[in-house]
Design brief:
By secondary structure, the chain is of the alpha+beta class. Helices cover 29% and strands 42% of the residues. It is elongated.
Amino acid sequence: MGAEVLRAAVGEEPLDVAEHAALVEHAGAGAVVTFAGVVRDHDGGRPVAGLNYSAHPTAAAIVAEVAADLAARAEGVRAVAVSHRIGPLGIGDVALACAVAADHRREAFTTCAELVDEIKRRLPVWKHQAFADGTDEWVNSA
């Protein structure tokens, strides 16, 4: 039996990892693992001022598909929640929030890592990064 997907979203609202963790709470879970992908103040040795994520219109469907695929095959996992933020983000803002509840910690850690990796691999998002010196660059825009 697969895990329940309690959130799989893409949107402009700020993300709260604790909220994702609360969503996946389950009486049968002995572990809840979370991940926060946070905007850092540097990239490639250059100071970052902020960034803006743009997404293809299919992005929400792809997040839902990735979460459902992983939830269906993950052993011992009870629930999954994942969200990716788009729009302008500042330093310290959460761009990707994930939470996985599982019977044991190994399954929770493994599934959370796989979820993050698969979202990063498949999600059609583009990052427009602004540097402190006034320059900018697009990432994943090829």
